Amino acid sequence: MEVTLAKSVLGQIKRQIKRKVNMPNGSFSYYSGTGRGKGSSRVTLFGLICKLDMMTWDDYLEHHNERMPSNMQIFLNQAYFTSSRIKIKDESTLQSYKYAYNKIKAMDADDFMFIFLPYVRIDEILKSKKFDKIIMANYSKDGDTGKITEHETYISCSIKMIEEATVSVGACNVQVKDKKGFHTMVGGFVKKNLKGYAEFVSMMFMPIITQGLWAESSYEKEAYSKLVALNIPFSKGYESLNYYNNYEPDIIFRGDQYVERPYIGEVFGVRGDIKYDEKKAKKIELSKTTDYFDFWYWDATQTDTITKFF
Q1: Is the pLDDT of residue 36 over 50?
Q2: How does pLDDT run across 190-228, given as a tens digit for each residue?
Q3: Secondary structure (DSSP) of 76-136
Q4: Are 297 and 284 a contacting pair, CB within 8 Å?
Q5: Using CB atoms within 10 A of its CB, is residue 252 exposed (0-12), middle (13-18) or buried (19+)?
């Protein structure tokens, strides 16, 4: 299976996405496009769901006058439309493979469906030593009343695959749903098993803020959540910026006032890494000498209090 991610749409893959992820199933290959046709650079499943996530966030802001999604249902609805921009397997799009429970019985052995849903919890399958059930939230709309209802979706997954996905993003980042909302997204592909039920053949976890955007650390999550609470529109940076010495910022503040002079931000939270500290120092020094952009940063290694954005 090949996935084409048009470079003109996505920009460069972030280094965090480029890192090799231990894929639980080797039958899937993901590729980023380099213009027309199929590209040759490999993209992991984690890279695919992160790209879909960031595209979804940006698409929503662009189409809603810079308003940010207020809840998961709104975010997932946008993700469905955004997935039509990702080519997969010849001329079809990722949207064509969206998971739907009523499609499972009609699936052939070679068919697959794509999952991109918020994580609720895991239930153990009685008497099974190899599989558990991943429980996710999904939404349905009543055709007569228009009422939207949240319900749970259960899909079996090998315990080994769950463990590998957990290790890949860090166990502390795979959080169950709580009173505050969702904290983790589940992305992957499912097929019909021999018993006729949907089963993950590849799966990854992705830590998020409750509105859906991918957050790479607890500090980043705190900063993004604060921006949402203050209603300050922003994008998660995933392209290297020429004027920023080809670094990728954690935050790009959005608004007409930043067209001529961009306003970008960084969340520094890594401790005990000499190379990271050197790069942090270079970024801060550049921000003091440049005339091309304004800069915000929060050094979480020095203070627990988020720096004021303005």
Answers
A1: no
A2: 999 988 999 999 999 999 999 999 999 999 999 999 999
A3: HHHHHHHGGGSEESTT-BGGGGB--GGGTTT--TT--EEEEEEEEEEEEPTT-SSEEEEEE
A4: yes
A5: buried
